[in-house]
Amino acid sequence: MLKILGKSSSINVRKVLWTCVEIGLPFEQELWGSGFKATDVPEFLALNPNGMVPVITDGPVTLWESNTICRYLAVKHGRADLLPANPIERAMVEQWMDWQAGELNNSWRYAFMALVRKSNSHKDPAAIASSIVAWNRHMGILENQLCKTGRYVTGPAFTLADIVLGLSVNRWAMAPMQRPDFPAISAYLERLGQRDGCRLHCCNGEV
């Protein structure tokens, strides 16, 4: 059986958990990460040398990097609705997944660590303000995209891009900061909240 290593509060672990719900895939979960099993021990580093969650083991397969794991599961289980077989449609989904992991995540990291995690290493007011501006600017990019597509990130159909970006939208909406009024994003989050996977692993009170 598929095994997922990582704590359920991790935004990246939640991507994988939500994907499993969409596929209807049973799994076992081991809780690793802050507050649970330490990820800097040899046992875990042998699976992921970065010492980060999530990691999956699926028979002989071991994988890390949450977006890669989600893509692997969708392809393995024949879910072309989540990750299309058509090269152009697939590239669009992966483009937004990569944007989430790189551009969007980098914009919110300092503000999130300061405002939500209360990190003592993230107390510079100027850096916090700059991160908030960048975070809101990137969310504006998503707002514009949703205005074009009208429903989900890449078009009328729900895909893996909506899992990874849905979690990011939820984090943005819950962070204690000033944010613009983005009606398309608000409607998008409400739409996602109708899905079982979102209710269980995204709009579940976790930031």
From TrEMBL:
GST C-terminal domain boundaries: 86-207
SUPFAM superfamilies xref list: GST C-terminal domain-like, Thioredoxin-like
A GO MF label: transferase activity
Matching PROSITE patterns: GST_CTER, GST_NTER
Gene3D superfamilies, sorted: 1.20.1050.10, Glutaredoxin
Keywords from the named record: Transferase
Signal peptide bounds: none
One Pfam family linked to the record: GST_N
Superkingdom of the source species: Bacteria
Domain GST N-terminal: from-to ranges: 1-81
Family per record: Belongs to the GST superfamily.
Protein name stated in the entry: Glutathione S-transferase
Organism of provenance: Rugamonas rubra
